[in-house]
């Protein structure tokens, strides 16, 4: 992983220390002592602190919560913004979240720490985040660190909803943060692809093709069908509404967060964890994870992709370590300038998509999935004609043959 940004060497040292906070030894006593000093500095920063997390029920939010509890045992309280959903209130959803296998080691070793996690019922899409007046007052009095990871990450999300969640949701959170009496760090999770229209992306906020306020006004005033018609022209040369609204949000933050201890973290494609407590843990089928699962079952065998391009993939625990450490750094050094970190593969140890696919198939065959439909195999190509040919003969025809067989035997077609 490469982290580019101000004082990246000190950040990397602290991240390395945080990554080794629960285990690992080294042959060099000095090196080990540096890890302990770095780890102590980060964990000590969180002692007695109150943390507020949006997006805590999502993939990255769960890993962030577990890491804070495990590696920063002195943290006082962690509040999660949770929206009632599917007949469950915030308390019920929190209990469901904490029952995840990800928290099994904590539940076994330090079950009392789970009581530090408290739900705040609310909704990122509503005014004042739909938080009650009493809860808002409590957050304003007590919160020291805010992690904002709530977002819609759907590439095909309608622009109106994407603006509401990614841009307006961030604006509402910032309004709350400005009223916090003891705020020391505000970490906003963006994406390395919000500037994917550029050939080089440094650690600055680039101006988007449209003013965020103008886009917000358009979305508020126009009906959704009309917004849908205008979306291609509004998004411009960005590939989807996700990257577009993330770029708008960064621009808005730059213009309206002066005086706030703000850090923008830009991860690339986030994958399952590389380290503890559960190596390889993931809880969704987004992005490459879904493709890997389908390929492992033998269902996915061809895709349009340039095999020679860099697969910019980062494990979720490395992104979380950066978020935790960046809050420590902004809270202790109090820089005057906006801090931005690109959390990406970079050019140090990149792998191509072809190398990534070869590794996936290697380990799929070594550790096969259960209920495999077909031997795991396949290819990627930038040639769309070849991909269409492969899709017909490797996806469409086999799928119809299997469905026909299932139907003839009295089953339900897939």
UniProtKB/TrEMBL annotation:
Annotated stretches, region: Disordered: 15-40
MF annotations from Gene Ontology: alcohol-forming long-chain fatty acyl-CoA reductase activity; alcohol-forming very long-chain fatty acyl-CoA reductase activity
All residue ranges annotated as the Thioester reductase (TE) domain in the record: 53-323
Presence of the UniProt keyword Oxidoreductase in the record: yes
Reaction(s) catalysed (UniProt annotation): a long-chain fatty acyl-CoA + 2 NADPH + 2 H(+) = a long-chain primary fatty alcohol + 2 NADP(+) + CoA
GO CC, alphabetical: peroxisome
Coiled coil: none
Entry-linked Gene3D superfamilies: NAD(P)-binding Rossmann-like Domain
Keyword terms, alphabetized: Lipid biosynthesis, Lipid metabolism, NADP, Oxidoreductase
EC number(s) given by UniProt: 1.2.1.84
Bias-annotated ranges (Low complexity): 18-29
Pfam families documented for this protein: NAD_binding_4
GO BP terms in the entry: long-chain fatty-acyl-CoA metabolic process
Function: Catalyzes the reduction of fatty acyl-CoA to fatty alcohols.
Annotated family: Belongs to the fatty acyl-CoA reductase family.
Protein name as catalogued: Fatty acyl-CoA reductase
